[in-house]
């Protein structure tokens, strides 16, 4: 019993190691540690969720109290942005980079086991079909909510009840933010919801090839955003263009706050 208690306390200390940067919480743990925590997930444990904030997420969060509440309720909050990690380094903060896409691929490669039940809230039927084809050894429970689900309380609640009833080990919420965050937060308050939810954005689409991820050299050089922009300019140009100045302001506030604390 003492060994079990010790292991549990170590996990709690790992999860508790967070820093706040640009107004957002980030867990300070390696990718391998995150995978170990996700793997050690006994059946029936109350629902918890993982978020992976990027620049757009952090900027929106600075303006949206509801989104701040959703991220505050997350079990793990992992940095999904090389620019944010770079800014953190300028302030001598070692912020691990763990993207939702990488985490999704890691889980299906090394954690999810044959026979596992997986629930996915997907953007399209094509993603669902490709997941079932790519992983025939898994049991998938899938729901594709209607467009604009964030403004449709009945459809949103249907997603929550579907996930809670399925009772899967892992739940992949892949319909973007804030709708994935809204579902995850409601599930965390649901008395019958179990498992771990992962808000992974386009992670499933990259995994099955309905969207192409940037080449590795672009990922490593911090240019993945450019690849996404060129691939979907109509949808993304406003997001990126209108994130630059707010991000700079958040960073300047961070610098001023640090100077005041150490002045």
From TrEMBL:
Pfam families, per the entry? Glyco_tran_WecG
UniProt xrefs under InterPro entries: WecG_TagA_CpsF
Metal-binding keyword on record? no
Gene Ontology MF terms: N-acetylglucosaminyldiphosphoundecaprenol N-acetyl-beta-D-mannosaminyltransferase activity
What broad class of enzyme is this? transferase
Database matches in CDD domains: Glyco_transf_WecG_TagA
Keyword check for Glycosyltransferase? yes
Going by the UniProt record, its keywords in alphabetical order are: Glycosyltransferase, Transferase
EC annotation from Swiss-Prot or TrEMBL = 2.4.1.187
Q: What is this protein called?
A: Glycosyl transferase, WecB/TagA/CpsF family
Q: Which organism is it from?
A: Pseudorhizobium banfieldiae
């Amino acid at each position: 019993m003492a060994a079990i208690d010790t292991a549990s306390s170590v996990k709690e200390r790992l999860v508790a190691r967070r820093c706040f940067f640009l107004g957002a919480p980030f867990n300070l743990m390696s990718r391998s540690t995150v995978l170990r925590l996700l793997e050690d997930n006994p059946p029936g444990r109350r629902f918890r969720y993982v978020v992976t904030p990027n620049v757009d997420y952090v900027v929106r969060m600075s303006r949206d109290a509801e989104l701040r509440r959703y991220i505050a309720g997350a079990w793990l909050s992992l940095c999904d942005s090389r620019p944010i990690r770079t800014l953190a380094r300028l302030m001598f903060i070692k912020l691990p980079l763990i993207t939702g896409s990488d985490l999704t691929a890691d889980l299906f490669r090394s954690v999810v086991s044959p026979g596992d039940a997986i629930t996915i809230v997907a953007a399209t039927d094509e993603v669902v079909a490709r997941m079932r084809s790519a992983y025939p050894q898994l049991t998938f429970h899938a729901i594709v909510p209607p467009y604009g689900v964030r403004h449709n309380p009945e459809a949103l609640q249907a997603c929550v009840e579907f996930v809670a009833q399925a009772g899967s080990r892992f739940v992949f919420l892949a319909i973007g933010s804030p709708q994935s965050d809204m579902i995850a937060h409601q599930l965390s308050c649901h008395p019958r919801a179990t498992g771990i939810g992962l808000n992974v954005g386009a992670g499933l689409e990259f995994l099955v090839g309905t969207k192409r991820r940037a080449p590795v050299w672009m990922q490593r050089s911090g240019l993945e955003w450019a690849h996404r922009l060129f691939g979907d300019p109509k949808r993304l140009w406003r997001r990126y263009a209108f994130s630059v100045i707010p991000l700079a302001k958040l960073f300047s506030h961070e610098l001023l706050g640090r100077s005041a604390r150490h002045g």
